[in-house]
């Protein structure tokens, strides 16, 4: 019995000690919790990119803030456990509050108290809201009394105003705007056919084995030029004497012909041809690399008569008679909705990437010109998924990125030169922010000859190469400010004479230099030169 008593006494004593320890530990823990000050949000540095993401995805705002706070706690705890001295000063965090203009033109004032208009912003321009306040604006009205005399009646109205910061024409600006002219979400201020677009920020890569360049200055080469040793030697020599350092080479051209033999052609068209312009691609690519030439594989996406011939049920047709639709050049277009063609194009691109091309450029990544969409009722686009044009183009580019990025190759897309100046997709499926968000480089085809007389206030844009390039490109630069990770802007420039344009001028070195200067004045140091005949002697004379 005594032994049992001693045993029980020992057990109870041990339990008492355990409880005391747990209680003390809990008290200490609670004490730390009570005494520890919640880290203020100002102690967490938020980059502008993170802030852009937050405001484009408003529903994620609180979770991102919590993430930053938790991350700081983890870093602090790690520093303390390692007894590491932290010498950096706490950095002030700025939670950026973005909104988008919702009027075709919104006036910006120097102050909200009957201030003067100092600027205007087009619809869907992103601005940073710094301050919001209510302002009573008084209005004086002259009122006639019963006795025939007049009195001044003062009435007041409370208006909500926002102080904003924004970028325009390469300048940082600020001013005041009526709060009613702002919306929080980009999707709420754009046209209906863009409502299903995913504007989640797409961060751009920089591959270790293929470092991104921002000074690409290229020329376009047809398959015929690429296949000619003499022509290639001439063009390589040109790169030694001029700023040219890149070749845009047709890998899949406007007719659907391929530069070299591919497995993709066999898979999707059922056969390979007997002859290809380049038989030994390894040798071809080595010569370019040995001469430090940046290589871009041009792949024409949806203008493909060879594919259309094999797949007539995928071609765009006229509703009236079921015949294939063609532009003035007579070439049949395949529907951009065709997922099988997506796979074919991307598989060709993969083979080009594996051969060492630095970049894949998608041209004709659009629907055929339809007079601003006016022909849509007459055409059957084979749209089985009921997608809008820009929605389909975005999904195609998303698919391309998903498949090609693991291969360490950059993605670029050619767009109409007017896309940067147009609020919608021009009936083509090409909307500036949609495309720029998805690709690494966006290349507007800004040929002065392709702008109608009177555009940008220029009587003959073709005769004004500097002004045309400057005006069209700055619109795209401004539009890039609306998204978090925009593509680099690398325009196509005119390296040919457009004799069909009324009031045209001959193009030579002077006109090319004028276009290049326009880009440099906008902070852009890269461009591509387009000459259908591949005659680039005008670069030098």
UniProtKB/TrEMBL annotation:
InterPro entries: DUF4015, GH
A Pfam family it matches: DUF4015
Domain (DUF4015): residue spans on this chain: 218-536
GO molecular function: hydrolase activity
UniProt-recorded name of the protein: Putative glycoside hydrolase
Entry keywords, A to Z: Hydrolase
Keyword Hydrolase set for record: yes
Top-level taxon in the UniProt lineage: Bacteria
């Amino acid at each position: 019995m005594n032994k049992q008593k001693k045993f029980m006494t020992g057990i109870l004593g041990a339990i008492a000690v355990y409880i005391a320890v747990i209680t003390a530990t809990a008290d200490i823990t609670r004490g730390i919790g009570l005494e520890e000050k919640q880290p203020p949000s100002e102690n967490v540095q938020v980059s502008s990119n993170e802030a852009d993401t937050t405001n484009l995805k408003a529903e994620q705002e609180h979770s991102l803030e919590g993430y930053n706070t938790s991350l700081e706690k983890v870093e602090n705890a790690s520093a303390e456990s390692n007894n590491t001295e932290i010498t950096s000063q706490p950095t002030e965090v700025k939670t950026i509050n973005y909104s988008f203009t919702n009027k075709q033109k919104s006036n910006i004032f120097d102050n909200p108290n009957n201030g003067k208009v100092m600027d205007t912003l087009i619809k869907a321009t992103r601005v940073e809201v710094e301050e919001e306040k209510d302002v009573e604006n008084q209005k004086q009205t002259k009122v006639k009394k019963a006795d025939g005399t007049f009195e001044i009646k003062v009435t007041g109205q409370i208006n909500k105003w926002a102080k904003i910061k924004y970028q325009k024409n390469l300048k940082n600006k600020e001013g005041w705007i009526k709060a009613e002219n702002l919306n929080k979400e980009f999707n709420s201020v754009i046209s209906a056919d863009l409502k299903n677009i995913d504007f989640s920020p797409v961060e751009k890569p920089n591959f270790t084995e293929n470092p991104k360049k921002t000074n690409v200055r290229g020329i376009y080469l047809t398959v015929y030029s690429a296949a000619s040793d003499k022509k290639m030697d001439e063009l390589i020599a040109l790169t030694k004497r001029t700023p040219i350092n890149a070749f845009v080479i047709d890998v899949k051209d406007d007719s659907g012909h391929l530069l070299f033999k591919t497995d993709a052609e066999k898979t999707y068209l059922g056969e390979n041809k007997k002859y290809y312009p380049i038989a030994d691609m390894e040798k071809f690519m080595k010569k370019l690399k040995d001469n430090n030439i940046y290589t871009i594989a041009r792949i024409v996406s949806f203008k493909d008569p060879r594919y259309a011939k094999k797949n007539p049920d995928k071609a765009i047709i006229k509703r009236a008679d079921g015949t294939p639709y063609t532009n003035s050049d007579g070439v049949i277009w395949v529907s951009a909705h065709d997922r099988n063609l997506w796979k074919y194009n991307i598989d060709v691109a993969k083979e080009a990437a594996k051969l060492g091309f630095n970049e894949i450029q998608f041209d004709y990544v659009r629907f055929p010109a339809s007079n601003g969409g006016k022909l849509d009722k007459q055409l059957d686009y084979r749209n089985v998924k009921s997608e809008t044009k820009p929605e389909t183009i975005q999904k195609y580019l998303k698919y391309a990125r998903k498949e090609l990025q693991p291969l360490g190759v950059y993605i670029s897309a050619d767009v109409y030169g007017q896309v940067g100046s147009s609020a919608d997709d021009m009936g083509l499926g090409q909307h500036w922010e949609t495309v720029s968000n998805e690709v690494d480089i966006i290349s507007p085809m800004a040929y002065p000859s392709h702008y109608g007389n009177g555009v940008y206030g220029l009587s003959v844009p073709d005769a004004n190469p500097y002004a045309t390039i400057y005006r069209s490109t700055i619109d795209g630069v401004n539009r890039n400010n609306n998204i978090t990770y925009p593509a680099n802007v690398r325009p196509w420039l005119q390296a040919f004479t457009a004799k069909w344009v009324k009031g045209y001028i001959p193009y030579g070195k002077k006109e090319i230099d004028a276009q290049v200067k326009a880009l440099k004045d906008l902070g852009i140091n890269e461009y591509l030169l387009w000459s259908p005949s591949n005659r680039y002697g005008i670069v030098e004379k």
